[in-house]
Amino acid sequence: MTTDLHRHDPVPGSGDGGADGLAALDGLVAHTTVDGIPALYAPASGKEITAGLFFRVGRADETLATAGITHLVEHLALHRLGLSDLHYNGATANAYTLFLVNGREEEVVEYLNGVCAGLRDLPMQRLETEKEILRTEAAGRGGGSRQQMPLWRYGARGYGLSSYSELGTWGLTPDQVRSWAETRFTRDNAVLWITSDHIPDGLDLTLPAGSRFPAPAATSALPSTPAYISGDDGHVVLTSVLRRSTAASVFADVLGRALFRDLRQEGGYSYSAEADYSPRDADFATLTAYADALPQKQDAVVGGFVDTLARLRAGRIEQAELDSARGKLLKMYDTPDLGAATLPSYALSLLLGHPILSPEQHKAELNAVTTQDLREAARETWENALLQTPGRGADWAGLTLAPQRSTDAVTGTRHQSLEDDDLTLVIGAEGVSLLTPRGPITVRYDACAAMTTRPDGSRVLTGHDGFSVNVEPTLFRGVTPDRIAALDAAVPPQATVPMPAREPDRIPQPRERAAAPASGGSSWGWTAALWLVGLLAAVWGLLCAVITADEASAAAPEWDAVVGVWIMELPLVFATWKVFAARRTRRRS
């Protein structure tokens, strides 16, 4: 599963990062090491305890071709624990993997020991079964209205991979999975937290030595922002990337409240209107705003969405809005067992290398936030915004449509579509391009995130920028096995993902091509016009022949005229035959 435990950032701001920053937590959270793993612990009321083992590896660390490898390791590590009444789970997010458990102390020890034992010796005999389980899990998960946003912002790598299926579940080998576990699931790439006043006896968290991996650097598929894309009816979504700060977390709450008031309470356009702030890595967070809409109200919702952000950017923020959001965040510190409640956030900040603040330091930063700080956060939100709109675009609001086509095409052999004369596939030495009336779609081999392969010759290439080209030999003229072999040789092996054979009826075949209305209608129109002219000529000729016969009282001129007229009709018959033949040829193509 994919999750994010941190809806708000409880420890933002400046301060000492890493293990040294833990000194700020003295008296609230204790810290030590267990088998070389940093461990945070604080007591909680109740007989049961909760523990989490974080690893700094997630989906954003993978490639499109290996997507799902972290999730596979998680599943394999948990397999030997089997069925149990114990409440435990695993979660694979963009930047981390978490093994979570709740129970009695001895049960927590058994679970954590079992996870580490599983990581040391993954049950590879289960690999194919777990792959199938992950594919089944993905099939039932559904995309949701926000599913495509990471793809458009980041492309087909890093944080954009959360928009894609886990392709690695088809082609990953035991050696690849084992190596991933040995290098990423190490004691130096982990942090442990436990809601207890002591570290339980009997823990054996032995893991190989390694190194702490920083969160992946963000990529970009957007030449400029603010930008927009078209999405499904009924949903307006905005995402933005902000520097992590106390002011940014407060602004997210202010924005959510403003959208709810403007779009639901006052406008009556939406039922749900909200905003969320979620840490992405050590330095940046993702702000997501959402509103729903009925089809007839979609334009009004988009307009209201943009107007609300414009008001906040202009600094028209009431002090009461700030005080309300600040008060909500300050209430977190009224939580019973505060140390235990904040353990997951502190552990994740330690894992990512984000500065750690004590509650007193964070409260001071919250109280220091001004409306001017919120105005700057609003401006940063808009500058980096990606807006998904239903229906019409958002150029009117000053946003730029995200790239829909590539900027250039490769040269190489040209293969005409068997379905559409306006489509041409180009297979070249540097990449492949699909030429369309609106522009090319290109994937270069040196920027190919993944290429899936089928035994029937089908190839689907996806570039780092998220554009894909589907090479189906059955749909393009002249795509021979030799051309496919040349393509295979050009794509880096690590980007190739073998897929299973398709059933014969699943292999696409060219659809019957109807004649284009413009050209077909024009041809038959000209034919009808020619016949009309010919018919009029024939009638006129006959009349002339009759008149000539009456005047001359001779038959010969009459028949000469008739013969002459019908000789004139022969070109019309020939033209009609050519049009009919051309029509039959188009149908066979």
Helical content, roughly? 25-40%
Q: In terms of structural class, how would the helical and strand content be classed? A: alpha+beta
The largest pleated sheet is described as: 6 strands, mixed
The best one-word shape is flat
Number of continuous helical runs:
15
Question: Explain this structure to me?
Answer:
The protein is of the alpha+beta class and 589 residues long. It has 15 helices and 20 strands. A hairpin with a 4-residue loop joins strand 9 (273-279) and strand 10 (284-292).
Which features does this protein show?
single chain, alpha+beta, six-stranded mixed sheet, 15 helices
Summarize the structure.
The protein is an alpha+beta fold and 589 residues long. The chain has helices at 69-79, 105-120, 127-139, 149-154, 168-171, 174-184, 246-266, 298-313, 319-330, 338-352, 359-368, 371-383, 481-490, 517-552, 556-588, and strands at 30-34, 37-41, 49-55, 87-92, 97-103, 190-194, 227-231, 235-243, 273-279, 284-292, 386-390, 400-401, 412-416, 424-428, 431-436, 439-444, 448-453, 459-463, 468-471, 496-498.
List the helices and strands and how they pair.
Layout: E1 30-34, E2 37-41, E3 49-55, H1 69-79, E4 87-92, E5 97-103, H2 105-120, H3 127-139, H4 149-154, H5 168-171, H6 174-184, E6 190-194, E7 227-231, E8 235-243, H7 246-266, E9 273-279, E10 284-292, H8 298-313, H9 319-330, H10 338-352, H11 359-368, H12 371-383, E11 386-390, E12 400-401, E13 412-416, E14 424-428, E15 431-436, E16 439-444, E17 448-453, E18 459-463, E19 468-471, H13 481-490, E20 496-498, H14 517-552, H15 556-588
Parallel strand pairs: 2-6, 7-11, 7-12, 17-20
Antiparallel strand pairs: 1-2, 3-5, 3-6, 4-5, 8-10, 8-11, 9-10, 13-14, 14-15, 15-16, 17-18, 18-19
